[in-house]
Amino acid sequence: MLGALFVLACGCGRVGFDAMRTNVDGAVPVDGDAPAPGWTRIAAGDQTTCGIYLDRAYCWGRGTNNEIGDGGGVDRLTPIAVALPAGVVTAVAQGEGHGCAIVDGAAFCWGSAPPGNGLPASALPVAVGGLPSPVTAIAAGGGFTCAIASGTAFCWGSDSAGRLGNGGGGNATTPQPVVGLPQPAVDLDAANDHAMALLADGTVWAWGHNDSGALGTGSMTPAQTDTPVQSLIMGTLPALAGWHACALQASAAVCWGLGTMGELGDDLSQSSATPRAVSGLGSGVELIATGGGPTDFDASCAVVAGVTSCWGNGRYGRLGHGATSNSPVPVPVQGLPANTVELALGYGHSCARGGDGVVRCWGRGELGQLGDGRGVMDFVPVSIAPVP
């Protein structure tokens, strides 16, 4: 995923840590179990995590491409406020090297500027022009961004592999409508090089690269499409990662795309262009999320009765089962309270927001992805540091 978050259903946990932590300079003690109420959204991208706390956006993790949006251009080991204009933040998103947010119905983005991303490289958020008001959803992918404004899906940035859905119109420096959607769009997600939108009639449409059948159409051909095609999923927005995707169907979890690392959770470790049921979760799945990218492969997590389980590529300990081994079936995240209400997965780390407002993360952490102030990898969930 790239993680993308939008007004989300998209976009992660762990255990076995010391009760007391200190931040990087050792001055401020951080209680690993202390409550941090107030988090209402989380999103994870490449190596950066963001969330909404008391209507403001905060980010932590890698910041050398200005993904944090605080103007510093450096990594942050604990949450720091994004320098957005005054207003209520309703959505955050993190892609590969850039982040975005919706503030009072307007879109703002910050970070690196790969060719044709429609924005200058900026350490501070800049307003996205050319979108009607209000903007209701936003998703950041690999070198491109998509949003929904007044029911229309727009994308801008690099059009490699057809990821803008503009019918072959090429790179776009300003938001361009996705062509050919038969109904208004209500939600969307973006991955490394493809995107999907949920329409008002409950159908799901996809465009971009069809690696290993990632578009969910039942076929691996064509290899890519620059105009939307209808997927086999109905009624819910899939969660997208680098090479696979997952969704809920009749309260059961299904996944498709690349599966060689166990990403599909069906105990087969094979790729599939059609959705396959995830093993062992049953029909009470409450939410699902995916993460990963073009180099680290993918992982997935889901929640049943508040309990989080993960499967797929276990590099960096991002499955939360205490090791770095892959798993082709869901395994419970160790030590995570049974109260998860939101998940967000990056390239090598995962985070979960509990119903108590606490955010806990696990996996890769040397750049601050876990937000607990230590800058180290952890195989089990740790609570992020309090907001300054």
What do these coordinates show?
With 388 residues, the protein is mostly beta strands. The protein has strands at residues 20-22, 29-31, 39-44, 48-53, 56-61, 76-81, 89-94, 98-103, 106-111, 122-127, 135-140, 144-149, 152-157, 172-177, 185-190, 194-199, 203-209, 224-234, 239-240, 244-249, 252-257, 272-277, 285-293, 297-304, 307-312, 327-332, 340-345, 349-354, 359-363, 378-383. It is globular, with a radius of gyration of 19 Å. The chain starts with 19 loop residues before the first strand and ends in a 5-residue tail after the last strand. 63% of the residues are buried.
Give a summary of the structure in a few sentences.
It contains no helices and 30 strands. By secondary structure, the chain is mostly beta strands.
